Amino acid sequence: MPDERESPDARRLQQKKPSFPVGDALRAYLRRTRRERDLPVTYERLRRFTDSVPLSDARGKPSLWESVFYDRLDMQGLHEDLKRVYAILRVDGDLSVMQHLYIDRIDFCAFGNSAPFRVRIVNAYNDNPDHFYVKRGDASRIYGLELEHLLSPNRLNFLTCGATLVEEHIAGIPGNEFIDRWLESPEIRPVRLAKELVKFNERCFVRLLGDMRAYNFVVVVTPDFEDAQIRVRALDFDQQSYEGRLNLYKPQFFKDNAPLALFCAKHLRIETARQYQREEQVIILQRAAITEDRLAMLLAAMSADPIAPPDHVRELREGLAEFYKRPAYLRCTSMGALVRENLESIRLAVAGADAPVRSGLGV
Fold first, then answer.
1. Cβ(85)–Cβ(132) under 8 Å?
2. SS3 track for 288-345
3. Global pTM?
């Protein structure tokens, strides 16, 4: 039964998004960028577990995960192959530096579009753990991961193998936990956090990453000699360029994120927020210029890929045309074309804002 207090947008997101297969153009891109590799473990192989037990979190509360077990005769071979997958992900397959690692646990989560497996791998010398994920390959998620890699300050390691997707773990404090336990911490400088939230909001909107509710991103707090540095990182990329509603690409409008929106309003003047927004737009354009050829190839594949229903594309292009006051959006027929047009919109906005300055300098 839906919660009557939830917005129509929130209820719409609760409906499970379909998974989209990886098309030929995207597969060619993945091969060229060495994301597509031959892996010894596939998602379907991990699905052949024989038993499972519920897994509790660090506080002893039930989680959405369950630990899974495999036939004893298959277990040793599976663990060795998972170590090989981790070596390919981390050190391009060099197993010589991985002999001291062992697979401690394999967990499964039936919740969510990708129904992931989480592999816990441990260093036998110092008991330091790491994790990686094996998921169903989904074109939407792959586009989201690669756009994050190219247009955000975060680099991502992930691999594909046919219908299998392998991702590294993204460490950080889950957004909902950060709101509950850290938002008013004296260790956090309010303006620094508010600035990063504005920048994160802009990154999501420009590259059309949707559904950034609090549990779909993490906050990374790095101690510095003066206060702490803050980075907000997307965690879930399933809703890359799928929805038609404009506000679903702006984290500030989700009910879960209301405390963060109010926090920004409290600590930032609107003029300062616009400054930070423009700073992020400029940095996005700089990243796009550095990766110009690779980004062009990715957006070409994305423009040819039907990763959203046509009515979602029409709804979103009309919303973006109104938002940016640019009729050019109305000619877009795909989500990839809309992402490309967003980059053009901020390029024109930055150029327009800078024009008087350049003229004054005689450039």
1. yes
2. HHHCHHHHHHHHHHHHCCCCCCHHHHHHHHHHHHHHHCCHHHHHCCCHHHHHHHHHHH
3. 0.91
